[in-house]
Structures are given as C-alpha cells and as structure tokens.
Amino acid sequence: MAHRLSRTWESISSIxxxxxxxxxxxxxxxxxxxxxxxxxxxxxxxxxxxxxxxLLALGAAGGGLGVQVPRRHWLVLAWTxxxxxxxxxxxxxxxxxxxxxxxxxxxxxxxxxxGPKSNFTTLEAVCRAGTGPERQKDENYELALDRHLTQQQCxxxxxxxxxxxxxxxxxxxxxxxxxxxxLDEAEQRGQARVQIIxxxxxxxxxxxDQQGTRTKATLALINEALVTSPEPVPDIEFVIQxxxxxxxxxxPWALGRxxxxxxxxxxxxxxxxxxxxxxxxxxxxxxDHCREYESHLRWEDKIDQLLWRGAFLVEIRKELWxxxxxxxxxxxxxxxxxxxxxxxxxxxxxEQHCQWKFLAHVEGYAYSGRLKYLTQCRSVIVAHKMRxxxxxxxxxxxxxxxxxxxxxxxxxxxxDNIASVMDSLLSDDARAKQIADTSYEFWQHxxxxxxxxxxxxxxxxxxxxxxxxxxxxxxxxASYNSFILMGQVHWEAH
Length: 494
Known about the structure:
globular, alpha/beta, Rossmann fold, single chain
C-alpha cells in the first residue's frame, strides 16, 4: 500500500511541477524558492521559522515513505492518501450497479419483449400493466404502431382474428401434417418457396412469372413480422401464391379462397405492405390520408350516393351498373385502364372515396383487394354475398338487427335487391351513420398493422405444429437481405 501511495505521488508530481518533492538535504533547501535571508541563525536563536521552512516528512507522518512535502501542500498530501481509496470505492460501486442490473434482467424471461421500441408506442406501459384483464383493454395500445406485441398480447387484443389459421391447422393435422411432397406440389404453381431459420428468412425459389410487385410485397410483410417479433419464431418452410386465385395444389399459402378450397391457408393481402402500381402506396400512408380527409368531413356533408368505379371485367359489376344507373343514388361507372384520359378524369384516390356515404364492394375474377381500403372511410360498405374469403372476412357483422353491424350485404343473388337496400339506408340516416361509424372502428382494430403482424406470427407458430418434417438450410438459397436487392435467388458473381 505504501509503495502504491509513493507511485501515485510521483505520477502527480511529474505532471504538476510545483508539487515535486524537495531536493535532498545535501543541496540547497530552497533552490526553487529564493529566500530573503539566511535561516540558520534564526533557527538556532529560537525565533519562529517561516511556513516555507517547516517541512513535513511523509516518512514521519505516513509510514516512512521518504517523500517531503511543504506544509502548504497539505491538501495534496490528503489527496495522495484518499485518491486510491476513492478509486477503489468507484470501482466497487460500478461493479455493484452492473451486478444489480444483470440480476434485474435475469428475472425477465425475454427482456426484449418489453423494451421500448418507439417514442410513439405504449408498449412499455402495457408491459408494466401486469397479466390480468387490464391487458385486454384496447386503450392500452396504439394499434397503428404497436408491431412488437408478444403472442400473449396478440391473443388478448385480437382473440377472434385467427379463425382461418386454426381452420387450416386442423385440416392439415387431420391429414397427418404437411410434407415436403405437399410443398413440392405447391411450388409448381406458387410464386415463392420460403424458409424461416433462426428468425431469418431465406428464399428457396422465386418463380419467373410474377404479377407486379405482389410477391415482393408479401415477402416484405413476412420480414416485418420477423424483425418486429419480441419472441423467437419457429423454423418453418412454406410456399406462397400471390395470384388472384389460390390454386388448391399441395399446401400453399394464398391470398383468398373459395369456401370449398380448404387446403389453402390464408395469409394477409400483399397490399398491407404497399400497392404501388395503381399509386395506392403503403397501407399506413392510405390510413394517414384517409384519417386526415375524414377529419374535415361531416356525415351530413357526404354525398347520398352509392359509389363504385373500376373495370367492369365480370358480369356482376355490369349488373350493378345496370341497376344503379336507373336511380338517383347510383354513382357506378366503368374505368378503362387503356384510356389514359378517362383514367385521369375518373380515378379516385382511396381518401377521395370518403366523400360518399355509401361505397359498393364488388368481386372480380376472384376476391377484390379494395374492400379493406373502403373500411378506412367513415362510410357504409354495401356488398353482395361474397364467393371468396380473405383472412379477416369472418370478422364482419352484416346482421341488420345487430348494434355492431359494420357492413351491408345485399340479400339474394348478387345485387338483385340493391334497390330496396338503398331505400332502407337512405330512409334511416341515423342507422346508416351508425353502421359507418362501426365500420370505421373495424379497420382501426382488426386491420391495424399490429393485427397483421400478430396474424403472421400466429401463422408461423401454427404452421410449425403441422409440419411433418424439419426444414434444412442449404447453400443454394438466398437470404432475404440479398434477394430484395437482386430480385432473384441465383445470379452470377460480377
């Protein structure tokens, strides 16, 4: 200890010159500080010595270190003794603090699950709320932003969301599970074959025949669900189809299905990421624009008509036009995508649809991706009985007697009874407004980015339950990071 104190003092002295120890007694005692007169006689005759003449030997005061310090530097002397102790205390405090922090994290199974991800999310507060019924309150969450929900939170907030996942799980479980052969067959008509290994996505195959950016948008959605997951995702392998019609061959994931196509497993629509071709852009952008647009609209200022604009393509759309054009409430028109002048004149942005009180939804060759966008307007959606199912359709309530009705389904074949439906809505404006308000609440909950992420991650887990094989990662696949840049699985080095 004494040796360390001596070393500490010497280090300080080398930096600050005036703190250097006095030279040995055989030299001039005050070589660095000139004195006015000799001190020897004053010392002998008993006259008091000056402060500079009084030297304090560290050897006498501190264990014989042999270092002499002028008394006026007693603060430095004190620091010489205290500094090593302070260093030790500081080191000990840092160690204790880190140890305490480590113990705190050790009490959380997965600390990342409850870590704050954004200044705009209430997730941290929710994590502190406990595990009781209070966690199921929607007001605890910002569903438009909270992608980082645990499975427990997802199940509490969206308890009825996973019907299609559970149906597909039960279907494949009853048949012994999904085999590699099932995926090989699905791959023949699919757009991509994908693996998730160690929470990372790999593209195993990517078909040359693609419909726009659909498959890339779907893969981007899957990647978002992965990177925002606060919990591990199981290793799985699957095939996605992104065409309008799902093909019931093998065991694919599809965008929509007919009621009888039970072997199709439904995934969220690609446009929950973005749909750039018709300039619809991302789902969140549409939500922002519609919300802003609606903030300046009163219900009574909206147009009392049923709006639909698009390409006729199929008979049911022409039938709606034939009926609607006979009534003042009809605002149905064809949109010829080959006629740019007509398109520029008639094409509406998603938020511009909100000007109308009533919005028609009509299927095309398969399901129509327009439906979910219509819910972002505070308007009444009027549809026919749909032939195709998407992952969220079962959540609609079309019961005319229900206080939670959020969509109107025209009874009978197609739109044969649309006239009486519209007469009923126009004659009861308060009821129409109630349906519109409920529809607006529907999308904010069931079609939020939080719900989409929860659906994907639940799909990953349930799919793992029915997989009859373990996926193996090989070198002939492309990581998603590379695929999204190259747009293909295999390429020549250059």
